[in-house]
User: Fold this.
Amino acid sequence: MTGNEMSPEARGGMERHAYDVVVIGAGGAGLRAAIAAHEAGARTAVVCKSLLGKAHTVMAEGGAAAALGNRWPEDTWQVHFRDTMRGGKMLNNWRMAQLHAQEAPERVLELEDWGALFDRTEDGLISQRDFGGHRYARLAHVGDRTGLELIRTLQQRTVQLGVDVFMECTVTEVLKQDGRVAGAFGYWRETGRFVTFEAPSVILATGGIGKSYKVTSNSWEYTGDGHALALRAGADLINMEFVQFHPTGMVWPPSVKGLLVTESVRGDGGILTNSEGKRFMFDYIPEFFRAETADTVEEADAWYDDKKNNRRPPELLPRDEVARAINSEIKAGRGSPHGGIFLDIASRRDADYIRKRLPSMYHQFKELADVDITAEPMEIGPTCHYVMGGVEVDPDTQQSAVPGLYAAGEVSGGMHGSNRLGGNSLSDLLVFGKRAGESAAAYATTGERPAVAEADVKAAQADALAPFDVAAGPGGGGENPYTIQHDLQQAMNDLVGIIRTAPELEESLGELARLKERADRMVVEGHRQYNPGWHLALDLRNMLLVSECIAKAALARQESRGGHTRDDFPGPDPEWGAKNLVLSLDESGHGVDIAEKPLPVMPDDLQQLFQDT
Amino acid sequence: MATTDHGVSSPTRARIDARTLRQDRWWLSPLTTFVVFSAFVVYATVRAFMGRDYYASPYLSPFYSPCLGDCVEGASDFGQPFAWWPLSAALIILIFPLGFRMTCYYYRKAYYRAFWLSPPACGVAEPHGSYSGETRFPLILQNLHRWFWYAAVLVGLVLTFDTVLAFRPMPAEYAVGDGETSGIHMGLGTLLMIVNIVFIWLYTLSCHSCRHIVGGRLRHFSKHPVRYRLWTWVSRLNESHGKWAWYSLFSVAIVDLYIFLLATHTIQDVRFF
Amino acid sequence: MAYDLKMRVWRGDAEGGELTDYTVEVSEGEVVLDALHRLQATQTGDLAIRWNCKAGKCGSCSAEINGRPRLLCMTRLSDFEPSETITVTPMRTFPVIRDLVTDVSFNYEKARELPYAELGPRDADGKRRMMQVDVERGQEFRKCIECYLCQDVCHVVRDHEDNKQHFAGPRFFIRYAELDMHPLDTHDRRKLAQDAAGLGMCNITKCCTEVCPEGIHITDNGIIPMKERVVDRKYDPLVWLGNKIGLRSKDDEGRTEV
Assistant:
């Protein structure tokens, strides 16, 4: 299936397909899930908004964290587990963090079986690199294009196995029958025609929500589709207040503002300096990480060569810490000419080393900003990068509260707690993609298949066509979806950004309510064939719903932790550290309700790991 | 250009009448190649068929080396096994350098573009109705490039020998000033031949087939460190293969022209010592 | 430093279309995709463009700018004079869907025909050992972002629709090369490359290399070495003789032809 063919099975103008497992999203998690489901014997389809192989996973640069122990034999899953939990400020679902740390090495080795070519150590093993928050060099990588390697490997495996892929096809609704998943409804982007999938299992692997923000490293696809589909299907979201701002995004030129600059720049020796030339991260070492962070330049620099006897440079603190520090420096007026700060590797490593270790960064700055990173520092600033929150799932099976609905990867919540460590995303995709695929296949092939109700398909169809039907609103003239998207991104950036306060969050909720109203009056021009205006109008509904989740949860959590910083509650609060915020669709179906839920309790043997140090 | 129903004008493609929308001077490069190569071919053909004025002791024209036919005295350093050959001695051996260059990956690109317009430049529609690449006779013979490379190495060795011989004393008839006939000599001809042989070797060793044979064919560089080292050297040369192809083309023609002018007593050799 | 940029954009679908003139405000540091996005947001909401990462990493926004295959997101406006009219058309090798979007399923069909990696068993400790120098050649090809600009510019299919059936194209020749240079792979795909993929159709005119946004040396490092490997198998007298008398390169041991 190339996505450009029209199915012969069209019945009454509606294309229909029957599968055991339908995976929504063809990034790392989606493809890994599809491979697992297929190998478990399920008839599997992948449905994705873009072409196969273009998903946001290609943007991942640094590597996949896995305690392979190739560089440091001392590295074990226990150490990785501990790093992950501490990075997430202990708000992670401990069981997910444990499974992740235990299974990541085998998931990475598996990629190699399928043809991936990772960079090697001198002994010929997979090389591992340093990253923020990881105690040992742990990230399996290929230069700074690990995500591309991962997606290409999974893509080639998927094609090899013969899994059906529906490309450039957007799912707008998960269909249910008697409280269980019955299928999914969507449209072909190319023709605008509708398609219904009948399947007892649906796996959400749609990634994140970054496109709700103005400055983001995420692509247009990141409109929170999976989050919104899950809510509308009756599942819950957790931890939505935690949004990771990557400390280093490009700030200039304007057209690439937000574009990611990999953490590997710092892992390979890059330092952060302000306009006064000061290496400022030493001023921002939090108490929580003081024992393991170097407090002098000498020690920090010595660490790159002698990791045993020195502590890590403060540039490699977890992302939330570094992003906040950069934010403070810029606010204090010590920023760079284009409103960022400086990331300097040119003065610290020779040009050949930089080009070899960071080829895409070299290329990216050269091509897009006319900056030679081997000769001058980069200007960087925080950019919206990842949402820790997502669908609440069973840690072992990845099933949501709705039977038959699964979530894996960024769209699922819990694994990363309040802040994700760099490198843990690629391994998360692999570990939980596989688990989701296997459990979805097992569920789908037992018991009877729920039927898709014709009325639900009709309703989904009407919903999808609404933007064409809306007449000019009472205010005179319909709303342009591009304008609404622009206003939403501005509001989220200004009011629900890195540093938050109660008045601003309240203001954001008011703004979101107004945007929703305007969205009801959206009109799109043209017809259904490959119409980006229409596509955006449909995605916007998801973005608005998910943005409301973020703002509501951010207002409710009265503390600062990980990817959630409240100016009015600057420190962490142990009471809040013991609970998650859970969001679900309200009765009207247009808004969300919020509730508190205690965190699952970690068993004693794992607790022990945090007392040893 | 009238719309046809193949290539960029096929029914499913975006309807655009222009064969190309390129606005730069894309035709300049193929045109230059066409003119220079044509000039060389004409010159080389004339010189190869002339059968004379190829030897001005101690210089032997590269077009005639090794001179295996009924050559002038002093030109045949490897005997005259083809003394019975009625035509120009150049025709006996030119097939090897000619074949080497005709099947060369760089020259193929250059002449397919400039002479056969297949394609004339990137993104410019070619004028042919059908195309089968190098899958059929005669173009399938391009696969014999490696055979010609083996021969080209031998030719290179012979030309190196000629260059050494170019240091021999020069008879008075070609020389400037007093015709000293003993000891080592070096003239402008010697220098030109040195430059030529350097370019010939750079061209021959930077060949893609050479790159493959010395190490490229291996799957495990790590188990063959010497061949890997050789491969990296050849790879570096190979990046400029096209440049060496041009330089050596000019140098070979210039050496021949210089010797022709000496042999016809049009000029006299500039002697350094 | 904002100015008004004149653009000609191909609008239409399989039925027909034409170059349409637009004027759009652009500013310093922008790329062609920015200009098109502003067109989309302000003048023509239904202009179809395929794009994704806007960072030159995903290879979605392939099109032709002033007749040259380029990524829209990596073509800076500063490469042109402010007074110059920039012409943007869809890729002209693939069937057009709408405006700048083409049907690239040709490439996905070819990908399906391609053989895959088939490695032998792992080492005793469950890991694999490959030396960096042995994976480096393959890594260059794996930089490919599948933008298909090489497939678009290749005259074998661009100018000859009928060749599409028998020709995999440069993108997949480097995949063959990658697998053939893989230190642990167990298949020999040289025959396939020559027969099924149509390697011989390539006349190495190098346009694929010229347009590659990743700077992969498609011809010199991929296609030509692959052609040479086919020569090894079929046209080299010394290799043939060596095989006859039992002198076989140990380097190829453990490979079976597919």
